[in-house]
Write a structure and sequence with these properties.
Length: 348
């Protein structure tokens, strides 16, 4: 992923103003009595409010929290909060703008993800600072979004540009990957990386416990058969029809893993590492045999018992492909999900 350094226009560097809410509710106390002073609303021509006012008038109030301020102020807020800036340039006349705003930008999935991980700033592409940023970044198509980090001097670093319509799942996938691959270099993902390391460590511990439990069970079976216990289970492969019933019978759901996969993880070319990303940004990595079917991944996700996960499907990006009911009996090898693959859980 290539970064590029961009110098900000002088007109953007020249002004600073602070506008972080739609108005100020002032309360004054006179002679022991309290009076409500009408809110001080910004004038209609105030450029910081043009984008947000027009956007909410057309698409409603459900959207990411866009800071109504100069772009340089958004950069400063992001620097203070150790986050990256998500920029959206709104082209009012472009045919894809309406559907992108309604079906992607204003969805709960995208709004919650952006509010949790980014400082969002929007501008109108043909006026004010939005026009100057469009001239600086020169988007080839709209809708146009960018992930930006501050740089030394009067410059910014463009970490990612997203041009053209994308689905909510695709947008979150791109932003997630940008944070993981680029955020550390700008000090914006330190807490995220630390949390990721803790989660990976916890997951490894759970997988190790599940493996030792399955190993002990296999050794006990061999002992009952009068055979010498083996060091690792070699005859306990569960077929795809058996695995869901085993989960229902009481095998611990968290850390559940195919017994043989743990024994050969990292050494057998017939193993596929599947990284599953959830809408809340959580990631889970699990090992499967390449001969396992797509339904095995669904069985693993169902065994986790995660709250808020009802009807869903698995989606890969670039190119986008849906692994739904029609692909349940396809093996991971036939689906091309080897030796490593990344899937996004898309709630339906």
């Amino acid at each position: 992923m290539a970064r590029r350094l961009v110098s900000l226009p002088r007109c953007i560097l020249g002004g600073f103003s602070r506008a972080v809410s739609h108005g100020i509710d002032l309360m004054s106390s006179i002679g022991g009595r309290r009076y409500h002073t009408p809110p001080l609303l910004p004038p209609p021509v105030q450029e910081e409010w043009v984008f947000l006012t027009n956007f909410e008038h057309q698409f409603g109030s459900t959207h990411p929290f866009f800071y109504a301020c100069h772009f340089t102020e958004a950069l400063k807020i992001a620097e203070d909060e150790k986050k990256l800036v998500f920029m959206y340039l709104h082209s009012r006349d472009h045919p894809f703008t309406g559907s992108f705003c309604r079906e992607t930008l204003c969805t709960e999935l995208v709004a919650q993800f952006l509010d949790a991980n980014f400082v969002s700033w929007g501008g109108v592409a043909d006026r004010g600072e939005g026009l100057h940023m469009a001239a600086t970044l020169r988007p080839a198509s709209f809708p146009f979004c960018a992930v930006i980090a501050p740089a030394a001097g009067d410059s910014i670093t463009v970490l990612q540009q997203i041009e053209g319509p994308v689905t909510p799942a695709e947008l979150v996938e791109i932003l997630q990957r940008t944070m993981e691959e680029q955020g550390v270099a700008f000090g914006s993902s330190k807490a995220y990386e630390e949390e990721k390391r803790r989660e990976d460590r916890r997951l490894r511990e759970e997988q190790n416990a599940a493996y030792h439990a399955s190993l002990k069970l296999d050794q006990e079976k061999e002992r009952l058969k009068g055979l010498t216990p083996v060091a690792a289970p070699t005859s306990s492969r569960l077929n795809n029809s058996e695995r869901p019933s085993k989960v229902m019978e009481g095998i611990p759901s968290r850390g559940y893993q195919h017994p043989e996969i743990n024994a050969i993880k990292g050494t057998d070319p017939q193993v596929s590492q599947i990284l599953i990303r959830f809408p809340n940004g959580e990631r889970r990595e699990q090992s499967f045999s390449t001969s396992d079917k797509i339904q095995s991944i669904y069985g693993y996700i169902d065994s986790l018992g995660l709250p808020g996960i009802g009807n869903y499907r698995l989606v890969s990006n670039f190119p986008r492909k849906v692994y739904g009911a029609d692909q349940m009996n396809m093996t991971l090898k036939d689906a091309g999900l080897q030796p490593r693959a990344s899937l996004f859980l898309e709630v339906m």
